[in-house]
Amino acid sequence: MVTSAKQHTNEESYISWHQRSELDKLADLPRELDDELTRLDQDFWVSSQKLKDIVERFRGELDEGLSKDGQNIPMNVSWVPSLPTGREKGTILTLDLGGTNLRLCKVVLHGDEAHGEEKSTLDQEQYKLPEELKTGDAESLWAFIAEKVETFVKDKGLDKEYSTANPMPFGFTFSYPATQERVDHAVLQTWTKGFDIKGVEGQDVAKQLRDKIEEKSLPVELVCVINDTVGAMIASAYNDPKTVIGAIFGTGCNAAYMASLSDVTKLDPSDERIAAMQDTNTSTEHQKMAINCEYGAFDNSHRVLPRTKYDRQIDADSPRPGEQAFEKLSAGLYLGEIFRLILVDLADRGLVFKDQDTKNLHESYALDTGFLSQIEEDESPGFSQTRDLFHAKLGLQPMDVEIELSRRLAELIAVRGARLCACGPAAICTKEGITAGHVAADGSVANKHPKFKRRWTKALGEVLDWKKEWGEDGDGARGPIKITSAEDGSGVGCAIIAAMEIARRNKTRGRGQ
Ligand code: BGC
């Protein structure tokens, strides 16, 4: 089967010969659907020139965030002053509150005692966050977390090793925008990723968690609160010195990098916190600071991003309309929803799923990014997997044309997402003069979508005017800036930051400060 519509994304389909031959067996798209696809292709395609314009504007917003508080991209100071040496050691309890799950880990860092073995050992448990908690109140959130910490501590026998007088160091990965006055303090700026828990915005989450820990007399001491992007960068740099950026392409979308302190002009160089965090061997001029960009908020004023009517609808129906404009076009939480909204639009106009019950299709967030990945990956004869998927998730029985249309839609949405996702790191690299290194990426889209890394690399190459073949290799192995799979940021990364902070405190005490 063929679609006559000119498809910009054809070049990035990366479909196999086998899939192509299965597609050829399907019926042709009727004229009206073909026209719809042409329209959608135009709406979703982001050209090379547009990518460059986006990156240019992105750079401007990153700079604004470094120079003043309260800017659209906040460029949050994390108080992590350096990359790890790789020698950090310790046993730390880490907690990760990311989006879907709560994860607790006992992390043992072996540092330079690893002797060729793994540099860290993990003992972990994961708990599903009850849906109602995401829109509940602060008390229920912290009570749930404290209860899980208590269970973990008991189950792993940590209560035998530690006490309130001799507590276990504890690190918290809190993957939401937060203002930090210190590494163990984090005032939530706004909830993202569909969370809407009352009584946390504008509050210090470290204090709220600490209060609960004290209430329950748990034998742990909160040492640091970090963002997942900072964790990904630090964990990856522990093993890979070429790491330049930590990025998350998952439910949300964001990155962190090491800025020169002198570029963070919103900080006063005489601020005593800077002196306290500074290594005696490092002059202020060379001092660095990990910045959690929080660039999911990029272009909230809608100056440059190409929004479709489906993107507008997602924004309007979200708990925080007007926020996270960039994230809503590119992150995993939204890709399945964009796909669903297009199908709903076409179904409501009688163009697809005629005479079928579309009740389940009309349910918000009924589909996730995994649905799109599976459609793109389907190599089964006659696309039986896609048919099963539609039936299992939506109770629908797609016809050939709906199979083809869905595959094309999944592609359009994922290609746009991947191309936009390249813009953040591209802006950081061009701004910082980074011409080579590793972008350590984590998140469900980066790790689970079969074609994300190739598309991301191709787009990065277009922005940076790479030789064409550099941007076209599978996982970008030939380009000088490569996307790599990040090490475990919220477990190992968080533990390393806690260990670095403990070492810094001990040193400061030693210096008598
Ligand atoms: C949050 C960031 C986080 C990103 C990836 C965004 O919604 O605001 O703090 O890094 O998601 O998890």
TrEMBL record:
<comment type="similarity">
    <text>Belongs to the hexokinase family.</text>
</comment>
<feature type="domain" description="Hexokinase C-terminal">
    <location>
        <begin position="245"/>
        <end position="500"/>
    </location>
</feature>
<dbReference type="GO" id="GO:0005829">
    <property type="term" value="C:cytosol"/>
</dbReference>
<dbReference type="GO" id="GO:0006096">
    <property type="term" value="P:glycolytic process"/>
</dbReference>
<dbReference type="GO" id="GO:0006006">
    <property type="term" value="P:glucose metabolic process"/>
</dbReference>
<dbReference type="InterPro" id="IPR022672">
    <property type="entry name" value="Hexokinase_N"/>
</dbReference>
<keyword id="KW-0067">ATP-binding</keyword>
<dbReference type="GO" id="GO:0001678">
    <property type="term" value="P:intracellular glucose homeostasis"/>
</dbReference>
<keyword id="KW-0808">Transferase</keyword>
<dbReference type="InterPro" id="IPR001312">
    <property type="entry name" value="Hexokinase"/>
</dbReference>
<dbReference type="GO" id="GO:0004340">
    <property type="term" value="F:glucokinase activity"/>
</dbReference>
<comment type="pathway">
    <text>Carbohydrate metabolism; hexose metabolism.</text>
</comment>
<dbReference type="GO" id="GO:0005536">
    <property type="term" value="F:D-glucose binding"/>
</dbReference>
<dbReference type="GO" id="GO:0019158">
    <property type="term" value="F:mannokinase activity"/>
</dbReference>
<dbReference type="GO" id="GO:0006013">
    <property type="term" value="P:mannose metabolic process"/>
</dbReference>
<dbReference type="GO" id="GO:0005739">
    <property type="term" value="C:mitochondrion"/>
</dbReference>
<keyword id="KW-0324">Glycolysis</keyword>
<comment type="pathway">
    <text>Carbohydrate degradation; glycolysis; D-glyceraldehyde 3-phosphate and glycerone phosphate from D-glucose: step 1/4.</text>
</comment>
<dbReference type="InterPro" id="IPR022673">
    <property type="entry name" value="Hexokinase_C"/>
</dbReference>
<dbReference type="GO" id="GO:0008865">
    <property type="term" value="F:fructokinase activity"/>
</dbReference>
<dbReference type="Pfam" id="PF03727">
    <property type="entry name" value="Hexokinase_2"/>
</dbReference>
<feature type="domain" description="Hexokinase N-terminal">
    <location>
        <begin position="37"/>
        <end position="238"/>
    </location>
</feature>
<dbReference type="InterPro" id="IPR043129">
    <property type="entry name" value="ATPase_NBD"/>
</dbReference>
<dbReference type="Pfam" id="PF00349">
    <property type="entry name" value="Hexokinase_1"/>
</dbReference>
<keyword id="KW-0547">Nucleotide-binding</keyword>
<protein>
    <recommendedName>
        <fullName>Phosphotransferase</fullName>
        <ecNumber>2.7.1.-</ecNumber>
    </recommendedName>
</protein>
<dbReference type="GO" id="GO:0005524">
    <property type="term" value="F:ATP binding"/>
</dbReference>
<keyword id="KW-0418">Kinase</keyword>
